[in-house]
Amino acid sequence: MKNVIMIVSVIMLLVPEIAYCTRAIDRCRQNLDGVCYFANKDGITIASSNRSSNSPFPRNLICKNGQVSPTLYVGSFDGSRFALICISSSVQTFGNGCFGNCPNLSIVAFESNSQLTRISDHAFRSCSSLKSVCFPASLQTIGGNCFKECRSLSCVTFALGSRLARLPECTFDGCSSLRSICIPSSLQAIGNWCFQDCGSLSILMFESVPRLQIIGAGAFSGSALESICLPSSLRTIGGGCFLLCRNLSVVEFEPGSKLRTIEDFAFGDCAALKSICIPSSVERLGPRCFGSTPLTTRLNPTAGLSSIVFEPSPQPITIGKDTIPAGVTIDANDRPLVRR
């Protein structure tokens, strides 16, 4: 029931963003406003109802036999003033910083049957007006810092059948308007600081049958997450992963969890976190991984409070330099207290 309510909430959040995106794409294709660059087999077409000299023709684009290369090269559109872009299905690669620092760019659309496989480092970094992006299923690689400091970005979606295996470091760092994200089942790793300082990010969901194994250091630090249910495939939670998530009150693990390690400060300063049940698969808890949280120092269900509790486990658990057997509660400073 909880998952159904969360899904409905996500849909309600995304409906206005998707509607806006759809209207903007229609305008883009009709060339009614902004400056639109269409990369296709016949060349680059600049369409605008408001042409001006400060809308430069893209640099470093190589044409062969009258056709545009399937690669948009390094810095091709860097600093351009257009508002909307529609990427042809023939484009396969975006070079480093290809669309970086485009202050008016608000919508990125991809034609159906897109062949795009790679978006390189910093490709859309600091596009301060970018509101929405939907990644095509063909995409396999996203570079580091790709959407860093896109402070208006509120809607990020992945097409069904996504092939994306990894979100690298700082992909959405500082995207302060991003409110929710649904991780595709193809994703195996979320890199360090990937969603750091996404101060509006309150909903984190996973597609069915997830393959996620690693969430890197600081990946969601400073976000507005309130509750999370981590997939059974997850093996490592990196240091400071949920550091300073002060609204986070519920942390759950899917049945059959394969989690092995929770690194240093992983849930540090999560001021609302009062209880957690560690899966039996866990072998190591890093020093102060629950430091500066209000986890109570004793088991006291009648007061509505609880402590960190370990499921029955066939192996000891390492906390810093100490070894703790199963069925032990610990306080906020990771000190063993009571055997259950």
Spell out the blueprint of helices and strands.
Blueprint: H1 2-30, E1 35-40, E2 43-48, E3 63-64, E4 67-68, E5 71-72, E6 84-87, E7 93-94, E8 107-110, E9 118-119, E10 132-135, E11 141-142, E12 155-158, E13 166-167, E14 180-183, E15 189-190, E16 203-206, E17 214-215, E18 227-230, E19 236-237, E20 250-253, E21 261-262, E22 276-278, E23 284-285, E24 308-310, E25 317-319, E26 322-324, E27 328-330, E28 336-339
In short, what is this structure?
9% of the residues lie in helices and 26% in strands. The protein has 340 residues and is mostly beta strands.
Would you mind describing this structure in some detail?
- Helix content is 9%, strand content 26%.
- It has one helix at 2-30; strands at residues 35-40, 43-48, 63-64, 67-68, 71-72, 84-87, 93-94, 107-110, 118-119, 132-135, 141-142, 155-158, 166-167, 180-183, 189-190, 203-206, 214-215, 227-230, 236-237, 250-253, 261-262, 276-278, 284-285, 308-310, 317-319, 322-324, 328-330, 336-339.
- It contains one helix and 28 strands.
- Strands 13-15-17-19-21-23-25-26 form an eight-stranded mixed sheet, with no helix packed on it.
- The protein has 340 residues and is mostly beta strands.
- Strand 1 and strand 2 form a beta hairpin.
